[in-house]
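The freezer alarm interrupted the setup, so I double-checked each line after restarting. Inputs confirmed:
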Amino acid sequence: MSEQRVDTGRIFPKRMTLDGVTPGMELEEKVFGPVSREDFVRYAEASGDDNPIHQNEEYAKKSGAPTVFAMGMLNAGYLAKAVSEWFGGPQYLRRYKVRFTNRVWPGDEVVCTGKVVSIEDGLVKVSVSASRRGPGPESLNLDEEQTAIVGEADIELPTD
Amino acid sequence: MAEEKIEFELPVTEEHVKRFAAAVGEDDNPLFFDAQAAQELGLPGIVAPPTFTVTQIFQVPRDEREQRLGANLDYARVLHGEQEFVYKRLPLAGETLKGTMRISKDFEKEGKRGGSMRFVTYETKFTDAGDDEVLTAYYTLIQTAKDVG
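Predicted 3D structure, all chains:
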């Protein structure tokens, strides 16, 4: 009896080759969330980042934040997934750099965008960003959308 | 006396890879869940998501890192400012990586509102059982200026 593959509903990102990429190309927006406190707890448990400022309301308030907020690396994880989907999979990533500029609050969506900057020696250089989009904590009176991460990625794509 | 580097092991277990992938919304990519599917793409088996090695926090907790490498940061005013990964390949489920962590950068610069900000980068080079480089992670902490005035 041959082994039966179970359909899990999982599918590989669409394959991409170097000739399908041009400098200036804008990448399709990817939206994650809205993120919740449960997402922060799950990420804490999976990553080992157990800083209570992301999970414990009282602790966050004592630290001067109106409520808990997402770990930067959780948002960076979503953005890495966006990069992987834009370029056919995570295995083509050669460099990924992120700088954290704003916090992401419960109820926010994480909106990922990217643009091909150049192609150098076969390496695709991409600028990426993730924004928070949502009302945010009332007391902060935030803009509806703010940049949470700015970053860069280098991708080495197959040539055929 | 501070040490120059910390060496540690990072086991990349299949169970942990799956749990981490699910936590960063990657639960729909077969590469992180299905060895047979990964092999169809020419990979040896299940791989870990690109940001997986942040789980080294389990291996080298902050206090140990502080004590052994001696950065003397004041964590009441420390933020995770930047993170960078440089990849040769993604970690594979089932392997144990060797991590070598050291402080690769430590400098101060003038803050926008006066006082000095300090930037400390922890570099961790991950190698495999054959001593080949897998990836290098750069974890940059920013110690904000003390409140002035």
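Quick read of the result. The two ends of chain A are 37 Å apart (CA to CA).
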